[in-house]
């Protein structure tokens, strides 16, 4: 009978340890995954920031690039120029 009590107490102890530690373990795993996602976002944002810094530098120092950006992004033209916009053909419905 004493052996059964020891086994029962051991099983009960393992269940209690599981109840205590499993939620913490699962939380750590979830936070680690969230941390990996955030690190990936930080890396992507840093890369986008680097590209924007390069573009800013080009706009400030390269007049040809600056003119190209004005024409393409803002649709500006030099005096006397006519800007044509080619639209895609409409599809029949």
Structure overview:
The protein has one domain (2-74). Helix 1 crosses helix 2 (63-74). The protein has 93 residues and is mostly helical. The chain has helices at residues 2-61, 63-74. It is elongated, with a radius of gyration of 32 Å.
Q: What's the arrangement of secondary structure elements?
A:
Layout: H1 2-61, H2 63-74
Query: Number of folding domains?
Result: 1
Number of helices: 2
Secondary-structure element string = HH
Strand tally is 0
Strand content: under 5%
Largest sheet entry: none
Query: What is the overall pLDDT average?
Result: 88
| Separation, N- and C-terminal Cα atoms | 85 Å
Radius of gyration: 32 Å
Q: What is the 3D shape? A: elongated
Task: List its salient traits.
93 residues, mainly alpha, 2 helices, 77% helix, elongated
In short:
The chain is an all-alpha fold.
């Amino acid at each position: 009978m004493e052996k059964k009590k020891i086994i029962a107490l051991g099983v009960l102890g393992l269940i209690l340890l599981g109840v205590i530690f499993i939620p913490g373990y699962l939380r750590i795993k979830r936070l680690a995954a969230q941390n990996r996602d955030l690190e990936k976002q930080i890396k992507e944002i840093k890369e986008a920031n680097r590209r924007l810094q390069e573009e800013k530098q080009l706009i400030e120092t390269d007049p040809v690039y600056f003119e190209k950006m004005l024409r393409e992004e803002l649709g500006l033209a030099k005096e006397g120029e006519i800007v044509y916009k080619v639209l895609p053909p409409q599809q029949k419905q």
